[in-house]
Amino acid sequence: MTYQVKPGETLRSIAKDFRIAPELLAQANGLSVTAALPPGKTITIPGLPEPSSLPYRVAVSRSKRKLGLYRNGVLIKQYPIAVGRILYATPTGNFVIVNRQPNPGGPYGKMWLSLSKTGYGIHGTNNPSSIGQAVSKGCVRMFNKDVLELSAIIQNGTAVSITP
Asked: Taking every annotated instance into account, which residue ranges of this chain make up the domain L,D-TPase catalytic (predicted)?
């Protein structure tokens, strides 16, 4: 997939967000690991499809506490979610699913879907009563059955937009 560099980002920070080795990212773009990246530069993220080439996308509304699944631009399913509490707000912006981990353990429930922002993801929960509330440390929580259903439908590279 292609990615447009944002102000302040480095090759290492982008590699960390997309969970790939900085050396692999540098090689895919004919750069050195220490190369300066001007904002607006387009780089290639190896191993992920272009999100626009995929039929699905995900839209998260923090205020409505809903996650919408879209196929070819049409809403096909909505799921209730939990979002970050006041000091740990769920980040807004445009991300992609970069990897997944079944049964990650602890509070993450039955599935973890990593977002292209280090430390954030869409995941299940071991506390289903939290769904519908602002209680997480910034991640998007779903019922386990819902995150398993979602993860079976979407693939890595799927676009995820999060709005206030």
From this structure: 56-163
